[in-house]
Amino acid sequence: MWNGVEFRETEDLDITHVVDRIGTGDAFAGGLIYGLQNYDDYKAMEFASAACALKHTYEGDVNLASVKDVTAILEGNISGRLQR
Known about the structure:
The protein is an all-alpha fold and 84 residues long. It has helices spanning 24-38, 41-55, 67-74.
């Protein structure tokens, strides 16, 4: 991400069980919009990346993950499962 001052990258999130790629771009965009409204630029990009990664793990074109689900990824839960 270029924020006008510096170029930043997030850490890689390794997705080992991709179920469906449809909707992942939308999940990233939605996560970025949410993130920019609630966090600084870098944290927003991390949130978007986690939302996109989590969307890869279930079927359908709509990201059904909650903010809590995405935040769990950011906190280190990389099991690839929705916590319901």
